[in-house]
Amino acid sequence: MKNLKFGITFFILLITYIYVANISLIPDHIILLENENYAIKKFIGVDTIETVRTSNDNENTVNVDVTLFGNKVKEVTIDTLENVEVVPIGKIIGMKLYTNGVLIVGMSEIENMENQVVKPFHDCDIQEGDTIVKVNDTEIDSIGGLKDVVNQSHGENVLLTLIREDGSVVTSNITPVQTESDEYKLGLWVKDAATGVGTITYYEKNTGNFAALGHGIVDADTDQLIHIESGEIVTSDVMSITKGNVNNPGEIRGTIFNQKTIGQVQKNTQFGIYGKLENLASLNIDTSKAIPVALRDEIELGNAKILCSLDGKTNQEYDIKIEKVYKNDDYDNKSMLIRVVDQNLINATGGIIRGLSGSPIIQNGKFVGAVTNVLVSNPEVGYAIFGDMMIKEMRK
C-alpha cells in the first residue's frame, strides 16, 4: 500500500513538474515581424485567450492569457512589427563602452606594511567577472572612484555590492590592505571601459536606432559579456589589414582617437550592440536605400552579398554563398553558415576576419542578417545571425 501511495504521489509530482516547466518556457513577451507566425505551445488543459488588441504606428500589440484548466496562469504580450525596413551600412566604426561600475578581471597578492604577502580577497565571495557597483553606500562608476573610497576606508572593513555574470546581485565584505606607498588596496585588477573596432550593420530611419557587430563585446580577460552603463560609436580610420589563414584569424586594425562621435550605445547583448545614431552625415547614409527585413522562410541557400568597407570610407558588395540555414535558431548568433566566394575579398582579407563582424548580408533585395563568426580552420567560411533576431533584440 505504501509503495502504491508513493507511486501515485510521484506521478502527480511528475505531471505537475511537466506542466510548470512547459508553462515557464512560454515567453512573457514575443516580438514578431509582419507575416511571421508564432504558435504558443498547447497541451492538455492549456489554452490561450486573446484579451486586448491595440495598434500604434507600425506596431500591433495583442495580450494573450494562458490558462490551465480554465484558470489564468500567465499573460503573454505579442508585438507584431509592420513594414520594417533598414538601411544596410557595412562601414568600420570605433566603439567606446563604459561599464556599470568596474569589472574585476583578476586578483593578485599584495605586500603590506610589514612586508608580508597577503590576499585580502581570500575567503570573500568575489569572483573574476564580477562588477563592483557600490562600496558601502557609495556608488562606483570608475576606477578612480573605487580607489578614492578604498583609501578613505583607512583599512576598515568595507562592503562591496557586486553584479555577477548571470545578473544576480551579491555582497561581500573585504578589508583593504595598507601598502608601503601608504595606499589601501583590495588586490583586485579592475577596468571601467572597453574599446575596439567593428562594422555597423544597419540604421532604422523610423526609430533612429542602429545595430552593429551581430555579437556582443566580451572582456578579453574574463571572456564574459561586458555589462555597460553607457557608450558611444565613433568614426574610425583603418590602419592595416592582416589576412586570415588556417588557424590564424586575420583582423582589421583601426584607430578611434580624434574621431567624430556618431551615436550613443544603449546596450551590449549577445546578438550585437544597439543604440541611437546621431550623425548620419559622417557615414554618408542614404535613407532612401532602406530595404525590407527578410523572414527566415524567405532566406534561400545560394548566392547573396555582404556589404563591408576595407578602407573605412567606402563600402562595397562582395559575393558569398549561404550554405546552411538553421531556421529554429533563437539562442545564439550562428543562424546561417556562409562562405566567401568573391576572389577580390579573399585576396584582400583571406575571407572573414575580425572587424568584419556586423557586415550586412543582402539577398533578393532584402536584409537577411549579418556576419558574426569565422571558422578558425577555414577563414573563407563563417557564421551569420538572422536579421529578424537583430531587429527583435533592438526592440526589447
Helix proportion: 10-25%
CATH architecture of the largest domain: Beta Barrel
Number of strands: 27
Distance between the termini: 54 Å
Number of helices: 4
Mean pLDDT across the residues is 87
Count of the separate structural domains: 3
Structural classification: mainly beta
Radius of gyration: 25 Å
Biggest β-sheet: strands ordered side by side in the sheet: 5-14-15-20-19-16
Backbone shape: globular
CATH top level of the largest domain is Mainly Beta
Strand content range: over 45%
Which ranges are low-confidence, i.e. pLDDT below 50, for 5 or more consecutive residues?
none
Could you tell me the CATH topology label of the largest domain.
Thrombin, subunit H
Largest sheet: 6 strands, antiparallel, barrel
What does this structure look like?
By secondary structure, this protein is mostly beta strands. The chain has three domains: 2-81, no CATH class; 85-97 and 193-395, Thrombin, subunit H (Beta Barrel); 109-186, Roll (Pdz3 Domain), CATH 2.30.42. The chain is 12% helix and 48% strand. The chain contains four helices and 27 strands. Strands 5-14-15-20-19-16 form a six-stranded antiparallel β-barrel. Strands 22-23-24-27-26-25 form a six-stranded antiparallel beta barrel. A hairpin with a 2-residue loop joins strand 3 and strand 4. The chain is globular and about 70 Å long. The N and C termini lie far apart (54 Å). The model has no long low-confidence stretch (mean pLDDT 87).
Topology of this protein?
Elements: H1 2-24, E1 29-33, E2 46-56, E3 59-68, E4 71-81, E5 85-107, E6 110-111, E7 117-118, E8 131-135, E9 138-139, H2 143-152, E10 158-163, E11 169-174, E12 177-178, E13 184-185, E14 188-204, E15 209-212, E16 228-235, E17 237-242, E18 251-255, E19 261-269, E20 272-277, E21 291-292, E22 302-308, E23 316-325, E24 336-340, H3 343-349, E25 360-363, E26 366-375, E27 378-386, H4 387-395
Parallel strand pairs: 1-4
Antiparallel strand pairs: 2-3, 3-4, 5-8, 5-14, 5-16, 5-21, 6-7, 8-9, 8-10, 10-11, 12-13, 14-15, 15-20, 16-19, 17-18, 19-20, 22-23, 22-25, 23-24, 24-27, 25-26, 26-27
